[in-house]
Amino acid sequence: MFLRSLKSTLFFSLIILIFGTVGYAQTGNYKVTVKDSSGAVVSGAAVTITGENGIGLTITTNDLGVAEFPIPDRGRSKIVVNAPGFPTVLKDINNTDGIDPSGTEITLNIGAIRESVQVTATRTQISSDETAVPVSVIDSEEIDRKAVNSIGDIFRSLPGTSSTGEGAFQVRPRIRGLDSNRVLILVDGERLNNSRTSTGMSGIESGLVETSQIESVEVVRGSGSVLYVTDALAGTVNIITRDTPPRRDSGFRFGADLSTFYTSNENGYRGNLAVNGSGKWFAFRAAQSLERYGNYFTGDLNGREIDGVGSDGEVLNSQSHGSNTQITTRFFPNDLNVIKLNYERRRASNIGSPTLVGVFNGYFPFSDRDKFSGRYDVANLNRYLSRVTVSGFYQKQIRDFTNVLTVPPFLPYFPGQYEFSSTVTNTRTVGFDLQTDWNFGSRNNLTAGASFFRDDNSDSRLILSGSTPDSELSTDHSRSVPDANLSNFAVFAQNEFRITNRLRLTAGLRFDTFKTKSKPTEGFGLPPGLDPNDIEDLGMQGLENGLNITNRAFTGDAGIVFDATRNITLSARIGRSFRTPNIFERFFTDYGSIGGFVVGNQDLKPESGLNFDTGVKFRTSRFSGSVNYFNNYYQNFLSTPIALNRNGDPIVIHLPEPQENIEVYQTKNVLKARIQGIEAEFEAPIKMFVGSLTPYGNFSYLRGDNIETDQPLDYISPYRTNLGIRWTNLLKNYYADYNMLIVGKQDRLSDAFLTENLGPEPGFVTHNIMGGYQFHRERFDLHINLGVSNLFDRQYKEQFVYAPARGRSFTIGTKWVIK
Asked: Does residue 460 sit in helix, strand or coil?
């Protein structure tokens, strides 16, 4: 059934591609003139016109401030203008009933509210103001200004988000109180998550995408399952990497850019060199980066002692090294077809787990990613079918987690204990996606398609154990997870209907089939000390011989956006989200990291959520703001309690006396939870005779409840506030920025957590200052960004993160661009 569906989808794609060039294009000139608020023309501005087909054309304004385009295709088009020193400007045009070929004039205002175009929330280009889904968009310029070590650091300052993990590689996003595999991370719309990583306090490392290769990051808060399948419970993060230069009408132009970054705290540095070129038929970009980060230092200890931290504040085992290679090409057979090919090679090594030193030491000797991807866009097949996109990718993620246990001897009673364990996981993913965009008149837009992915995983493990490192060591190659794969095939559709120019409705549906298979694997199985009746009660019969599990999911969402006035937009959305149990959760069978023996569970149900959002957005020339309330109900959350037999007694592994029996734990669907909260943000530029002063900020309040136990839900940060003020001069080449992060104390925690944690999670306040200079010419740009993070060297840690955060750090970043 599945193979027939996949073959039908591929055949349909082939037919579309064969006949995809039978589209139409209009001829003539359409002029976009760009000026500033004083009436002076702006040359060197990048003007992009994107039609309903989703394919954009970018042209730079000439000395007269004019960019000339062919007449835009039939339907609604979007003009986006980006000019150095100015906020982005968006403008919609409608070519349904004819368009004025003389074009349009766009005025750029210094200090105006920055708009953004994103694709993640709807799979098509749309203004973030026009969607019912809360979205934050961070472009490369803002990433440079924030002076982040890895992309995970940006989540410290966005509404509704925080971060988990520390160091230059392992920081990961937490959205609306959930993290790990309950947040879906995409790279260029293709999943970075895989089915092998554990969910508890882990998940995929966002550091697998190197920061200097990123064009923008789109963070969608709320359900994303209809468009992006499993894992999008709390939110979806789409990391969009840098692309080739825009297509040129004539000639071939080469360019290059060099970016550097240095942070004093961990004596860390990053450099990236890229070359590019574009013409009428072909464009390319090739980049190579290198990074090195030593151990970082936490803030002023004031004589305190912290495990794993030296007396001078050095956080031991927090280093990482890495490199990244990226090659991207685009081919333009004609005006209606685009082929994109991409290769990315990420290498990271010597990745420490901060503070894990001493008796237990954990680190990643390497974590690597290789990815090949291709995409084919064909536009304007007929008056209804505006675009077809077919894409596919192959990705391999391989990493080694090593831990060393060293317990010193206490002679003559205890000879000591030494154990070296290295687990290499090798996950190979192949994915395919078909998307079609349909226009039924000027008011009805349908996005529909099919997707497929398959994760194949194999582990290898080496355990050496003895009394000391120099003693005779025994060797063990047993495995915790069998060779297994997880595959998914889905069909989806989402429709947007504009009832009036002020009222828009959206609705989407998705159907998924998941197949999880394990294979007989040498070195994997249940321990001999388990009673046969207990194995039956655990539902683990036949585990050693392999299991074949199928589950299905049906998802939907609906939203409404209403422009109440010219300046006020109201929105509401309800959607179902889900996450299918992965390979680790179904099959992991081994001793747990904190004691006991953990067994898999073939009967797990998907975690699911019912997500509701409602919000209001304000926008004038002097103020922009939004307030959003959400209420998310989740059920079948996975946990790992003590396993009980049919009589209600704990299941144990029986060991010969005098050894104590070992308790058995099993992953189960046990938790119902509700997470609700408020997210608000604002920006209010004030024009001055020397430039623009802009106060800005955001505020988040989260509350989580365990409905099963009527206790607060742990790992929820309650209050997070970011406040700042930014100044930009009139000539748009200098800026200065001050911001502060305020996190409230969290004492609304379960009784068990408060006891184990020895009290509540403290709040903290940090301060940061940044400034920079930008020099622009027609074919050359220079950017310099300076900053001081954690200005007062505050010693703190992010809530629910074991390792302390960085102390004060001076940063400098540069970018040299030849266009």
From this structure: strand
- 8's tokens: 């039908």
Out of 60, 90, 109, a domain closes at 109
Backbone angles phi, psi at 600, to 5 degrees: -75, -175
Question: Tell me: the pLDDT tens digits for 684-696?
Answer: 988 887 888 999 9
Strands (E) located in 306-336: 320-334
Residue 85 in domain = yes
**C-alpha span between 743 and 489 (Å, rounded):** 42
Mean pLDDT of the chain: 88
Q: From the centroid of its chain, how far is CA 421? A: 30
Query: What's the rounded Cα separation, in Å, for the pair 284 and 482?
Result: 41
Cβ contact 348:305 at 8 Å: no
Q: Domain limits at 17?
A: 1-109
Residue ending a domain, among 109, 138, 159, is 109
Q: Structure tokens of 765? A: 């306040």
* Same domain assignment for residues 586 and 438: yes
- Short-list 743, 636, 726, 637, CA closest to 685: 726
The enclosing domain of 763 has a CATH number of 2.40.170.20
d(CA 171, CA 153): 7
Instruction: Tell me if 363 sits within 8 A of 356, measured CB to CB.
Output: yes
> What is the CATH number for 48?
2.60.40.1120
364 close to 402: Cβ distance less than 8 angstroms:
yes
Name the DSSP class of 122: T
Cis peptide before 656 (omega within 30 of 0): no
Band of residue 365 on the pLDDT scale cut at 50, 70, 90: very high
CA distance 665 to 353: 26
pTM: 0.91
- 123-180 pLDDT, tens per residue? 887 777 788 889 999 988 889 998 888 888 999 999 999 999 898 888 999 999 998 8
Per-residue pLDDT, averaged over 276-296, amounts to: 95
Residue pair 272/249 in contact (Cβ under 8 Å)? The answer is no
| Banded pLDDT at 6 (limits 50, 70, 90) | very low
Q: Residue 569: is its pLDDT beyond 90?
A: yes
Confidence of residue 113 (pLDDT cuts 50, 70, 90): low
Residue 736 falls within a domain, yes or no? yes
First vs last C-alpha separation in the chain: 51
pLDDT range class, residue 28, cuts 50, 70, 90: low
DSSP run (H or E) holding 692: strand 691-706
Whether 637 and 781 share a structural domain: yes
Same-domain status, 758 and 615: yes
β-bridge mates for residue 676, sequence order: 631, 703
Q: Tell me if 725 sits within 8 A of 696, measured CB to CB.
A: yes
- What single DSSP character describes residue 129? G
Residue 297 is classified by DSSP as B
What are the pLDDT digits (tens) for 740-775?
Answer: 999 999 999 999 899 988 899 999 999 999 999 998
Q: How many C-beta atoms surround the C-beta of residue 136 within 10 A?
A: 24
Q: Residue 460 falls within a domain, yes or no? A: yes
Question: 13 pLDDT band (50/70/90 cuts)?
Answer: very low
Please give the pLDDT value at position 526. Answer: 85
Residue 191 lies in a domain: no
Q: How many domains does the chain have?
A: 2
Alpha-carbon gap, residue 695 to 615, rounded angstroms: 22
